[in-house]
Amino acid sequence: MTEYPLRAIGRVESALADRATAPRQPDEGAPDAWLVFDDRYAAALEGLTPGTDVLLLTWLDRADRDTLTVHPRGDASRPRTGVFATRAPDRPNPIGLHTVHILAVAGTRVHVRNLEALDATPILDVKPLLTPDR
Asked: What is the DSSP string of 67-120?
């Protein structure tokens, strides 16, 4: 297989430090957080505005890349399921996908609502969330 190098463009600043106690989804008590981008990507942040929603892609750096099946949501009473049919963080390429709401933009720091990523999680990319009116 071909490998494709990825480069982190920033990191998450969050109160969430422990994977075991972190919410699994944003609507399960995820706190506000900051996205802190490397200064060289400042121009790429132009156009991000408070009040908009974006897709945030992260690298779940504490994930187990050898996991192929899981009990969904860690519930052993549920049958094992392939990770590609779940939102499990442990997977061959642990890319996190998060819809976040922008609260503020301050230089290379973006304050967002309801992010369940752990503190220091690497940021890979940000993309606008497309709506019918674009």
From this structure: --EE-GGG-TTSPPEEGGGS--S-SSS-EEEEEEEEEEEETTEEEEES--PPTT
